[in-house]
């Protein structure tokens, strides 16, 4: 049986301690990676928007939060190595990760430095834990974002709604990439009837923790 998520710290008339708040934000991120599909109150932190820099400006898209290390302050997500965002990250490794959780009314904006893992132990470890349903998209014969004459489902058409076998799914490994994000700063915003509440937790270059005007 899956457990309902522990509610994030709520706004009250008394301010929460900044260090408790920081710890709770990281705990909520960790919990989001562990939640089950059938859980009724799903955390909004299960997905995030990744904003990147490009030569001509900026880009952004949703991804699934895959793993969180709250002690070292790392976050990981997966993508296809052929995707446009990978090229962008190679040129401009700094990203903004934006989370919104409707239940707790909390937005987190994380500034992070990324590192691409394709043919190494980190990528192997994530790939090993990935179920065949998620591996299926890495079997796509088409480069993400390439023009197509007709709608293309993002995996070999012949598979339809079937899942690949574990052995067949291995063909997707060459297209699989893990993006590791070293978090440099976390900007917290809580929306509440009694007012908003905003705080900064900066880790690099210097540690700084402070309330901010929303
Ligand atoms: C809810 C949701 C979750 C998604 N998760 C991922 C993901 O984990 N990894 C990924 O590469 N794309 C994911 N996508 C697709 C991306 O948003 C995007 O369309 C795709 O990766 C191409 O982006 P790019 O051209 O900027 O590389 C997700 C989309 C949605 C709507």
Automatic annotation (TrEMBL):
Start-end of Polar residues biased regions: 8-18
Pfam families: Pyridox_oxase_2
Region annotation Disordered: where it falls in the sequence: 1-20
Domain Pyridoxamine 5'-phosphate oxidase Alr4036 family FMN-binding: 25-116
InterPro entries cross-referenced by the UniProt entry: Pyridox_Oxase_Alr4036_FMN-bd, Split_barrel_FMN-bd
Protein name, entry field: General stress protein 26
Source species: Spirosoma utsteinense
Taxonomy of the source species: Bacteria, Pseudomonadati, Bacteroidota, Cytophagia, Cytophagales
